[in-house]
Amino acid sequence: MADVRIDRVSRMFEPPVPAVAEVSLRVGDGEIVTVLGPSGSGKSTLLRLVAGLEKADAGDILIADRRVNDLEPGQRDVAMVFQSYALYPHMTVFENIASPLRVRGMAPEEIETRVRRTAERLGLAALLDRRPRALSGGEQQRTALARALVREPKAFLLDEPLSNLDAALRERTRRDIKTLFRQIGATALYVTHDQVEAMTLSDRIAVMKAGRIEQIGTPEEVYDRPATTFVAGFVGSPRMNLLPADVLTPGGGGTVGVRPEDVTICADGPLELEVALRESLGSRTLLTLRRGPLEITVLVTSRDAPSGTARVRIDPTRAHYFDADGKRRSA
Amino acid sequence: MRHLYLLPAAILVFGILGLPLVLTVSRGSGHFAALFSDATLGSVALTTLAFAAVSVTLEMAIGLGFALLLQQTIRARGLFRAIALIPWALPTAVMAMSWRWIFNDVYGVANDMLLKVGLLHEPIAWLGRPGTAFFALVAADVWKTTPFVTIILLAGLQSVPRDLHEAMSVDGAGPVRRFFSLALPLLRPAMAVAVTFRMIQALGIFDLVWVLTGGGPADSTRTLAQYVYETLFRYLNLGYGAALTAAVVLGAFLLASGVGAAVRGKPVL
Amino acid sequence: MRRLCLASGLAFLVVFSLGPFVWSFLTSLKGGRELFSIPPTYFPQSPSLEHYTGVFEQRPFARYIGNSLIVGAGSTLIALGAASLAAYALARLRIRFSGAFEKALLLLALVPPALLVIPLHDAARLTGLSNSRLALILIHAALNLPFAVWMLTAFFRGIPGELLEAARLDGLSRVQILRRIVLPLAAPGLAATAILVFIFSWNEFALALTLLTRDDVRTVPVGIAMLSGVTVYEVPWGQISAAVVMTTLPVVAAVILFQRWIVGGLTAGALKG
Q: Is the CB of B171 less than 8 angstroms away from the CB of A82?
């Protein structure tokens, strides 16, 4: 495995719209970094730039300290798992996995050994003679993964590999991927819009919006100390409350963020609001409280969920303060 | 009620094409035995088969080349596609007249160009000798029908999802390898369609031959369709002509489907 | 390197596709003497339009054009009408055996028209429609129907189902939906199909040859083929070239102008099929 360095890379689309604007990011050897963002944020484009499927207009991309900007995808020694899996329909599972090895002219005996070993590892040993259309979604996903693994590349690039799976399968596969990558010490750049995936899988997360990185940090850093209102609202489920700051400090400007679980309902709380909506999440309930234009969501245990009106208190030490530009204020 | 929507089309097609065809088969039913003892039929069929084989092979090759060209992202791609389409859109019989002039042994530009380039040492009487007349026919037919193959193969090439190409590219395959390992195998269904259609059309060719060579010289380029035409209008033998029609149509279909199935191989998608 | 390959490939494509047409064009402008020069000249030394006027004098060429227009327009209208109805039903209404119907149509369409000479000539004779342009109109319509249905079905299928469902909820009848929503949205497809059907009819030879034998109903391709004499010395090559150009130039222009629709329509049909 090797490290991947993205240094002030830009890519423009026409009309001059920056898909990726001066992004710098480093994925250390053996590290899993997730690029998290909504659709249109440029995260897929960034991945494709590293893969070589698109050419950067500015900046450098280095893999194992080697500048790869001018190299064809096949020469960069990176493996990619596509959102649609991109399995070759006219080849069997075996041939799909063997494909990258065949291209490199590896000896047939060695191909055989490697493919079988990788297939075993991913539970595909019994399916090697099947065609992709005879596989379930999960099996197709694992085949795509196997094709990437068998190459033992310098880095893995994954483009929303779980988004086509149903929820239960997604959770299981997520864990399998993490375990697998840990075992082999994989360097991986992972792209997703699902913040749960990002939080659970990554060593570090890079949150992206409109072609720029808003924050890079460990999951805890991004969760506990979001650098901007965008990151604050994007990471964490249920979504953080982003309220005008004068709710806490009268006359104050900017925004204050507080997570629904950090808002407490107590009989002597300073704010009184009406319970507009109750959403049961099982043992806990998400309440939407309203007063005029103000809306606050609160997470409570279902037993204690009030109705009608409620009084809330916001703990200032659990709140995040952002200035008028949306950037974090050191408070 | 809904089925009434199909009625006008059904009446037109089944009434005008289907019915006469059926009537023809019954009209010819007394004469099928004569087919087997017809020596002329044998040689005409052979000529037509040879023509179809050579023509279709050339069209598939050139058509594939053009399709690959037109798939690239180039400026004015639409214009080039339109230009590629033109031979197919022009009237065969009318252009056959042009070809007669081009292949004229004395004044024709074909001879002139080949002489200038050095491929020929003296002019050829293209339409005057059986071997060269066959060749001229093939050339004119390939010119006319290659666009048809091009369009079908182009659609086939475009139906391969882009991320399959990208996956192969990331795995290390260059454009040539990607073509042979990915595009070509996945192109087989489209090629099968093109081959089947073209074979049937080639086996039934009439316009071009009638105008370009008239079946000559000395009936050496007479095709099945012309033979059928002559059976009615020259030999005035309606019954035999009917039998001939039925036999040729059936034969063409069977042969073309067989070749098409062979090209398609096992379905993958 | 790749640029060079691409450029030379495209150059070959252009020369290949347009060569014969361009040659006919150049030939048609060469004056009588120059036409028969050895070796042949490439560009007309003294261009002249004598052949263009000559064609109309020698034969009733204007009448041939008229006949072709009548047959073309007639068959296009009929084919398009019948095909629209059928395609709409096949694409959007649940019809039993629709697959079989489409296959049967396709099968009949595959029969090379030249082989239908005997059945159709016979049928025309029996119904008293020999030398009738109406007969050819109907035949051309029938010959083009499967292709028109194929293309239009692909276009109609491309219209999002939700649009039609919304219209049904709003209370429109099936026919109204067809008229007000489907047809306008499929207009490019209809145009492309109409153009192609017209071109097929304009170009058709074998059946026009056998069914319209009288000179006053003859169509253009047959007329041009008849321009040849018995020996090569009598063949009016200049006039033939002029006739070729006049007959094919509109088609070339139409293809280039409407190329986006035509190629799109053919591609859509091919992908679906």
A: no
Looking at the complex, report in whole angstroms how far the Cα of residue A90 sits from the nearest Cα belonging to chain B.
5
Q: pTM, whole model, 2 decimals? A: 0.81
User: Which residues partner with A274 through β-bridges?
Assistant: A290, A309
Q: How far is A310 from chain B (nearest CA, A)?
A: 53
Domain spanning A4-231, CATH architecture: 3-Layer(aba) Sandwich (3.40)
Does residue B171 sit at the A interface (CB-CB below 8 Å)?
yes
Pick the CATH number of C63-272 from 3.30.460.40, 3.40.50.1110, 3.30.70.100, 1.10.3720.10: 1.10.3720.10
- A89 in contact with B at a CB cutoff of 8 Å? yes
Tens of pLDDT, residues A131-188: 998 999 999 999 999 999 998 899 999 999 999 899 889 999 999 999 999 999 999 9
Of the pLDDT bands very low, low, confident and very high (cuts 50, 70, 90), residue A330 is low
DSSP secondary structure, B195-210, as one string: HHHHHHHHHT--HHHH
Who's near A194: CB < 8 A, 6+ residues apart?
A162, A163
- Please give the structure tokens belonging to residue A97: 């996995």
Query: Residue B59: which domain range?
Result: 41-264
Contact residues, chain C, for B80 at CB < 8 Å? 10, 13-14
Complex confidence, ipTM? 0.85
Nearest by CB: B89 against C27, C94, C251: C251
Per-residue pLDDT tens digits for A174-222 = 999 999 999 999 999 999 999 999 999 999 999 999 999 999 999 999 9
B69 touches A: beta carbon within 8 Å: no
Residue length of chain A: 331
Query: CA-based angle A23:A160:B72, to the nearest 5?
Result: 80
